[in-house]
Amino acid sequence: MAGVLLFATVVAIVLWATGMVPRALELVGIFWAIYGFVMGLLGGVLEPAVEGFGRVLMDLGLRRAGAGYSAIESLAVRGHYEAAAEAYRERAQEPAHRVEATLRRAALLAGTLRQPETAAAELENLRARVAPDSEDDLRIGLALVELYEDRLGDPGGAMAELRRLIDRHPSSRHLRRLRAELAELKRQRFHDDPAS
Fold it and tell me: Which residue ranges form the domains of the chain, and what is each CATH number?
Protein backbone atom coordinates (compact mmCIF):
# COMPACT_ATOMS: atom_id res chain seq x y z
CA MET A 1 0.00 0.00 0.00
CA ALA A 2 2.86 2.38 0.82
CA GLY A 3 4.38 1.68 -2.63
CA VAL A 4 1.13 2.65 -4.35
CA LEU A 5 0.95 5.86 -2.31
CA LEU A 6 4.56 6.72 -3.19
CA PHE A 7 3.84 6.21 -6.89
CA ALA A 8 0.65 8.32 -6.57
CA THR A 9 2.66 11.04 -4.82
CA VAL A 10 5.20 11.19 -7.63
CA VAL A 11 2.40 11.31 -10.25
CA ALA A 12 0.57 14.01 -8.25
CA ILE A 13 3.72 16.14 -7.97
CA VAL A 14 4.28 15.81 -11.76
CA LEU A 15 0.65 16.70 -12.47
CA TRP A 16 0.80 19.65 -10.08
CA ALA A 17 4.12 20.88 -11.43
CA THR A 18 2.84 20.76 -15.02
CA GLY A 19 -0.35 22.57 -14.00
CA MET A 20 -2.63 19.91 -15.43
CA VAL A 21 -4.30 19.03 -12.09
CA PRO A 22 -3.58 21.70 -9.47
CA ARG A 23 -5.52 19.92 -6.70
CA ALA A 24 -3.59 16.63 -7.10
CA LEU A 25 -1.36 17.42 -4.10
CA GLU A 26 -4.41 17.91 -1.88
CA LEU A 27 -5.79 14.53 -2.94
CA VAL A 28 -2.46 12.80 -2.24
CA GLY A 29 -2.28 14.58 1.14
CA ILE A 30 -5.70 13.19 2.05
CA PHE A 31 -4.60 9.70 1.00
CA TRP A 32 -1.42 9.98 3.11
CA ALA A 33 -3.50 11.13 6.09
CA ILE A 34 -5.83 8.16 5.70
CA TYR A 35 -2.83 5.85 5.33
CA GLY A 36 -1.23 7.28 8.50
CA PHE A 37 -4.46 6.92 10.45
CA VAL A 38 -4.98 3.30 9.35
CA MET A 39 -1.36 2.35 10.07
CA GLY A 40 -1.52 4.05 13.48
CA LEU A 41 -4.75 2.21 14.28
CA LEU A 42 -3.30 -1.12 13.18
CA GLY A 43 0.11 -0.67 14.82
CA GLY A 44 -0.92 1.13 17.99
CA VAL A 45 -4.30 -0.38 18.83
CA LEU A 46 -5.22 -3.51 16.95
CA GLU A 47 -1.82 -5.22 16.90
CA PRO A 48 -1.28 -5.02 20.69
CA ALA A 49 -4.89 -6.09 21.28
CA VAL A 50 -4.55 -9.12 18.98
CA GLU A 51 -1.17 -9.99 20.50
CA GLY A 52 -2.60 -9.77 24.05
CA PHE A 53 -5.61 -11.86 23.08
CA GLY A 54 -3.27 -14.44 21.50
CA ARG A 55 -1.23 -14.62 24.72
CA VAL A 56 -4.41 -15.16 26.73
CA LEU A 57 -5.49 -17.97 24.42
CA MET A 58 -2.06 -19.61 24.55
CA ASP A 59 -2.03 -19.51 28.36
CA LEU A 60 -5.59 -20.74 28.68
CA GLY A 61 -5.45 -24.02 30.53
CA LEU A 62 -1.74 -23.79 31.19
CA ARG A 63 -1.98 -21.48 34.17
CA ARG A 64 -4.19 -22.07 37.13
CA ALA A 65 -6.57 -19.24 37.89
CA GLY A 66 -5.59 -17.94 41.29
CA ALA A 67 -3.24 -19.81 43.52
CA GLY A 68 -3.21 -23.59 43.14
CA TYR A 69 -2.61 -26.31 45.66
CA SER A 70 0.69 -27.63 44.32
CA ALA A 71 2.76 -26.08 47.13
CA ILE A 72 0.53 -27.73 49.74
CA GLU A 73 0.47 -31.03 47.87
CA SER A 74 4.26 -31.01 47.73
CA LEU A 75 4.34 -30.70 51.53
CA ALA A 76 2.23 -33.83 51.79
CA VAL A 77 4.36 -35.69 49.26
CA ARG A 78 7.48 -34.88 51.27
CA GLY A 79 5.82 -36.28 54.41
CA HIS A 80 5.00 -32.98 56.12
CA TYR A 81 1.37 -33.97 56.68
CA GLU A 82 0.63 -31.70 59.64
CA ALA A 83 2.05 -28.70 57.80
CA ALA A 84 -0.02 -29.58 54.72
CA ALA A 85 -3.18 -29.91 56.82
CA GLU A 86 -2.49 -26.53 58.41
CA ALA A 87 -1.87 -24.97 54.99
CA TYR A 88 -5.19 -26.34 53.75
CA ARG A 89 -6.88 -24.89 56.85
CA GLU A 90 -5.36 -21.48 56.11
CA ARG A 91 -6.42 -21.68 52.45
CA ALA A 92 -9.95 -22.58 53.57
CA GLN A 93 -10.19 -19.17 55.24
CA GLU A 94 -10.52 -17.66 51.75
CA PRO A 95 -14.17 -17.86 50.65
CA ALA A 96 -13.26 -18.76 47.06
CA HIS A 97 -11.23 -21.79 48.19
CA ARG A 98 -13.22 -22.79 51.28
CA VAL A 99 -14.90 -25.93 49.93
CA GLU A 100 -12.00 -27.35 47.92
CA ALA A 101 -9.39 -26.70 50.62
CA THR A 102 -11.59 -28.18 53.35
CA LEU A 103 -12.30 -31.29 51.26
CA ARG A 104 -8.57 -31.77 50.68
CA ARG A 105 -7.81 -31.18 54.36
CA ALA A 106 -10.48 -33.70 55.39
CA ALA A 107 -9.01 -36.32 53.04
CA LEU A 108 -5.58 -35.76 54.58
CA LEU A 109 -6.95 -35.87 58.13
CA ALA A 110 -9.00 -39.00 57.54
CA GLY A 111 -6.24 -40.77 55.63
CA THR A 112 -2.63 -40.23 56.53
CA LEU A 113 -3.16 -38.34 59.79
CA ARG A 114 -5.76 -40.88 61.01
CA GLN A 115 -8.14 -38.32 62.45
CA PRO A 116 -11.43 -39.24 60.74
CA GLU A 117 -13.55 -37.80 63.55
CA THR A 118 -11.92 -34.39 63.10
CA ALA A 119 -12.38 -34.65 59.34
CA ALA A 120 -16.07 -35.51 59.77
CA ALA A 121 -16.60 -32.60 62.16
CA GLU A 122 -14.95 -30.16 59.75
CA LEU A 123 -17.01 -31.43 56.81
CA GLU A 124 -20.24 -31.22 58.79
CA ASN A 125 -19.34 -27.67 59.83
CA LEU A 126 -18.62 -26.78 56.20
CA ARG A 127 -21.85 -28.38 55.03
CA ALA A 128 -23.79 -26.14 57.40
CA ARG A 129 -22.26 -23.06 55.73
CA VAL A 130 -23.08 -23.84 52.07
CA ALA A 131 -26.37 -23.65 50.22
CA PRO A 132 -28.26 -26.92 50.72
CA ASP A 133 -29.08 -27.36 47.02
CA SER A 134 -25.64 -26.45 45.67
CA GLU A 135 -23.05 -28.59 43.92
CA ASP A 136 -20.75 -27.92 46.88
CA ASP A 137 -23.29 -29.50 49.24
CA LEU A 138 -23.28 -32.59 47.04
CA ARG A 139 -19.46 -32.78 47.01
CA ILE A 140 -19.30 -32.39 50.79
CA GLY A 141 -22.02 -34.99 51.27
CA LEU A 142 -20.23 -37.52 49.06
CA ALA A 143 -17.03 -36.96 51.03
CA LEU A 144 -18.96 -37.54 54.27
CA VAL A 145 -20.50 -40.75 52.92
CA GLU A 146 -17.06 -42.10 52.07
CA LEU A 147 -15.72 -41.02 55.44
CA TYR A 148 -18.57 -42.62 57.40
CA GLU A 149 -18.44 -45.82 55.41
CA ASP A 150 -14.69 -46.36 54.94
CA ARG A 151 -12.95 -44.54 57.80
CA LEU A 152 -15.42 -44.42 60.66
CA GLY A 153 -17.15 -47.76 60.07
CA ASP A 154 -20.54 -46.06 60.46
CA PRO A 155 -22.85 -47.37 57.72
CA GLY A 156 -25.83 -45.78 59.50
CA GLY A 157 -24.25 -42.33 59.15
CA ALA A 158 -23.41 -43.08 55.53
CA MET A 159 -27.01 -44.16 54.82
CA ALA A 160 -28.42 -41.05 56.53
CA GLU A 161 -26.12 -38.81 54.47
CA LEU A 162 -27.01 -40.64 51.24
CA ARG A 163 -30.71 -40.25 52.03
CA ARG A 164 -30.18 -36.52 52.69
CA LEU A 165 -28.34 -36.12 49.37
CA ILE A 166 -31.06 -37.97 47.46
CA ASP A 167 -33.74 -35.78 49.04
CA ARG A 168 -31.86 -32.51 48.51
CA HIS A 169 -30.62 -33.23 44.98
CA PRO A 170 -33.42 -35.10 43.17
CA SER A 171 -32.29 -33.86 39.75
CA SER A 172 -28.59 -34.57 40.21
CA ARG A 173 -26.75 -36.56 37.57
CA HIS A 174 -25.43 -38.66 40.48
CA LEU A 175 -28.91 -39.70 41.64
CA ARG A 176 -28.77 -43.23 40.20
CA ARG A 177 -25.38 -43.85 41.82
CA LEU A 178 -26.55 -42.45 45.16
CA ARG A 179 -29.62 -44.70 45.18
CA ALA A 180 -27.56 -47.75 44.21
CA GLU A 181 -25.04 -47.06 46.96
CA LEU A 182 -27.82 -46.57 49.51
CA ALA A 183 -29.47 -49.84 48.44
CA GLU A 184 -26.13 -51.67 48.72
CA LEU A 185 -25.49 -50.31 52.21
CA LYS A 186 -28.99 -51.32 53.29
CA ARG A 187 -28.49 -54.77 51.84
CA GLN A 188 -25.18 -55.19 53.66
CA ARG A 189 -26.54 -53.80 56.91
CA PHE A 190 -29.84 -55.64 57.09
CA HIS A 191 -29.20 -58.86 55.18
CA ASP A 192 -25.81 -59.57 56.69
CA ASP A 193 -26.98 -58.69 60.22
CA PRO A 194 -27.28 -61.94 62.27
CA ALA A 195 -29.88 -60.35 64.57
CA SER A 196 -32.45 -60.04 61.78
Answer: 73-191 (1.25.40.10)
